[in-house]
Automatic annotation (TrEMBL):
Residue window of the full protein shown: 15 to 371 of 583
Source organism, top-level taxon: Bacteria
Protein name: DNA mismatch repair protein MutL
Residue runs in coiled coils: none
GO biological process annotation, one example: mismatch repair
Length: 357
């Protein structure tokens, strides 16, 4: 099991920022509204993620660090219905296989949690020690790759590794404005993103205030809002057989309401040196999808706005997605993509026409 875990670790735990990403996604999956990340030495000393999510029941703590024990994927068909960011049940096990990992979690308001430690190998009889802890989870990862010298040797400088962590942290912060996020490096606060409580009256998925905070750019002035209703596509044959149509979206197999829309912002610019964001999020996950970005580039070019920036948030029914295309989960397959792009293109071109009629 040690070897298998270390092999898996190579795929998931490629560098410190990959650990931070998985831990952040777990905290978000656990409905945390406040997440603190403490890093030392670019993540090579310590990575600690503290959340106020639902926590882990003592009976489930050992399972949480055991490979595939928690996989939410029961069968391949189920891959099309995933709503959580994590679903393979291997990130914690993989991290624990190549570090000294401490998991502390409390699932209630007793003020008491359980602590479990793993250093490369999980004990046959792992001990759960009661400790003081608020409801939520704290995961501390020390000495990454202490038992894999070749990987440790591949790590870059502290500044480079922390740079990767910071980039990834911003990407997560741009996915969810409803979560407060703070990042510390060597005890210094580096980024702090609050939750904007003022209601977002235009109902855009992500308020401009979070975009500005997370990117450090002034983005309000030139922003053009985009909103595309895709509910007409919920009649698409690939999903209509197993979903019930309702007024403004529809219910999935589990009965949850799902919306089909795109919202976000465009920043018109003809200056290609202008470093405007170019972001595409699908159901809270940053994706790199050449088909989408190429079409956006074409729309921009035909409006003489080659430097156009965009932050577009796709909220799509999970049946339309297959996120299991690549371990990084950044590649994604969207089923009625051509229809979606036709709607988006129509809306974007209409907005751009109002700029230079
Ligand atoms: P996955 O996210 O793919 O399920 P992970 O290895 O990342 O697998 O996590 C294993 C399990 O541990 C999760 O499914 C979840 O039940 C639990 N878990 C991990 N981190 C947290 C957290 N911060 N809060 C609550 N539960 C967590
Ligand atoms: Mg996970």
């Amino acid at each position: 099991p040690l070897l298998i875990n270390q092999l898996a670790a190579g795929e998931v735990v490629t560098r410190p920022s990959a650990v931070v990403k998985e831990l952040l996604e777990n905290a978000i999956d656990a409905y945390a509204t406040n997440i603190e990340v403490h890093i030392t030495q670019g993540g090579m000393g310590m990575i600690e993620v503290i959340d106020n999510g639902v926590g882990i029941h003592p009976d489930d703590m050992v399972m949480a660090v055991t490979r595939h024990a928690t996989s939410k994927v029961a069968d391949v068909a189920h891959l099309h219905g995933i709503t959580t960011l994590g679903f393979r049940g291997e990130a914690l096990a993989a991290t624990a296989a190549v570090s000294r990992l401490t998991l502390i979690s409390s699932h209630d308001d007793s003020g008491i949690g359980r602590q479990l430690q793993v250093a490369g190998i999980l004990d046959d009889m792992p001990k759960l020690i009661p400790v003081v802890h608020h409801r939520g989870t704290t995961i501390t990862v020390k000495d990454l790759y202490f038992n894999v010298p070749a990987r440790r040797g591949n790590l870059k400088s502290i500044a480079t590794e922390f740079g990767h962590i910071e980039t990834m942290f911003r990407e997560v912060a741009l996915a969810r404005a409803d979560v407060a996020l703070t990042l510390f490096h060597d005890n210094k606060k580096r980024l702090s993103l609050s939750v904007n409580t003022i209601s977002n009256d235009n109902e855009n998925y992500l308020p401009l205030s979070r975009l500005e905070q997370a990117t450090g750019l002034a983005l309000t002035e030139q922003a053009i809002e985009v909103a595309v209703d895709l509910s007409s596509l919920t009649q698409h044959p690939s999903i209509s057989s197993h979903s019930t149509h309702v007024t403004n979206g529809y219910t999935d197999n589990a009965g949850a309401m799902q919306s089909a829309r795109i919202s976000g912002w465009l920043w018109p610019s003809c200056d290609t040196n202008h470093h405007l964001p170019k972001l595409i999020y699908v159901n809270g996950r940053l994706v790199k999808e050449a088909l989408i970005s190429n079409q956006l580039r074409q729309m921009a070019q035909s409006a003489q706005l080659a430097g156009m920036g965009y932050a577009l948030y796709f909220e799509l029914p999970t049946q339309w997605l297959n996120v299991n295309v690549h371990p990084s989960k950044q590649r994604i397959k969207i089923s009625p993509l051509n229809n979606i792009m036709a709607h988006l293109s129509h809306a974007v071109r209409a907005k751009l026409r109002t700029l230079n009629p």
